[in-house]
Each structure stands twice: as C-alpha cells, then as structure tokens.
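Hey, I was hoping to borrow your eyes for a little while. A protein chain has come my way and I'm curious about its shape. Take your time with it, there's no hurry, and the full record follows here:
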Amino acid sequence: MRNIIAIFWREYKSYYVSPIAYVVIGVFLILVSNRFIYKFNDFVQMSFMATAQAVNTQSLIPKFSINDSVIRYVFQNIRNISLFLLPMITMRLFAEERRTGTLELLLTSPLTIIQLVLGKFLAAFALFLTMVIPTVSFSFYLFTYGNPDLGPILTSYAGIILYGSAIISVGLLISSLTENQIIAGALTFGAFLFLWIIGRVGETTVTIWGKLANYLSITAHYESFAMGIVNSRDVVFYLSLTFIGLFLTYQVIYSLRWR
C-alpha cells in the first residue's frame, strides 16, 4: 500500500508541475459553468413566462422540473466535456516514462507492476475528481433558490465517478502502448470518440447490431444515472471496463519487463 501511495503522490504532484492540471481544470470549469448559467437562466425565463401567462389567463401555473431542465443537462455536459479533456490527463502516464527511460528503472525497483499501474490510475482519477468536485457548488446554488430532487443529483455524481474511472483506465492502457504522448493523446481521443459515436449509431437501428452498438457506448450507460436510476447493468459495464483497462495495462507493462 505504501508503494501505491508513493506512486500516486508522485504522479499527482507532477500534474501541477506542468500546466496540464491548470489548463484541464480551468477549461473544464469554464465550459461546465457556462452551460450551467445558460441553462439555469433559460429555466428561470421559461418559468417566469409560463407563470405570467397562467396569471393572465387565470389558469393553473405549470410546474417545471429543475432536475430535467437544468441538472440532467449539466451532468450530460460534464460527461461529454470530460470525454474530450481526459486524454490530456492520461496521455503522459506511461508514454512519458517509456520515452525518458524511467520506466525501466521503475520495473527494476521493488515496486510490483500492480502497484505501479494502480498508483498511476489513482493519480489520474484523483485529478478527475479535482475537476468534478467544484461543480457541487451548482447544487448548493440550486437548493438555495429552488427545490430540486436530491436523488438524481447523487446518482448523477455516482455515474460520473464510474464513467470517469472507466475512460481513465482506457486512456492508461493506450498510454502504455506508445512512447509518444501526442500519439497516446490522439489515439485516446479517437477511442473515446468511437465509444461515444457508436451509441448514436445504435440509436438509429433496432437490429441486434444496433443493440450491441448501444451496449458498447460508454455514454449511453450514463443516461439512467442522470434520471436518478442506478441500473446494475450500467454499474457492471463501467466496473468491467475499468477492470479490463487495468488488466490489459498490467499485461502490456509485464511484457515490457521481459523484453
């Protein structure tokens, strides 16, 4: 456990030595905050206009769900924006070690490969959480000025955590396959884009291939979390993808030890 913590802390601090952490976190929060402000203002205007119309026509004031109109929209944006920013976090994890030759030193140290893989994975995952945690302030704002349902907010965050762990493990795997950070980033971005687009393809057909494409979509499995539903099928998918990514990364690094 001590070795995992040492690798984790080494990798996590290295993000802040370079501009990577500041750029990724800054861009993420700017984009997500912009979407939240836009959608919240849109919701307020829509509610005000509907209330004014109901008063003028002496009819019942319609009820609008802030969860459906604002919260689900914001979390879907968190999901999509993360998909395109996380390659910047994962691309250097093993690629940089391979390029500089420090991976060979790590492999000849008392560290086990499992400890090395888990330490790097946890560092990237911790940075992802550092990105997401500030968005909790949106919920405080909504509870101050509205009455949202807490359930979908909690399940949405649970889904984001599982979703993040899955795509980080895929990025970690791709980073272990090359010595070039740019190539690792490009391949990771391409893999994430494929896992996103394949779900759109699955939505357009009802054949068995469409169902398979929809199941393989990394974004489609998040939808139930955004609606306040924890589906074991989606939880198993994200946990399985995380495990597969870490397992294959272990196999790649293990093969490098014996070359």
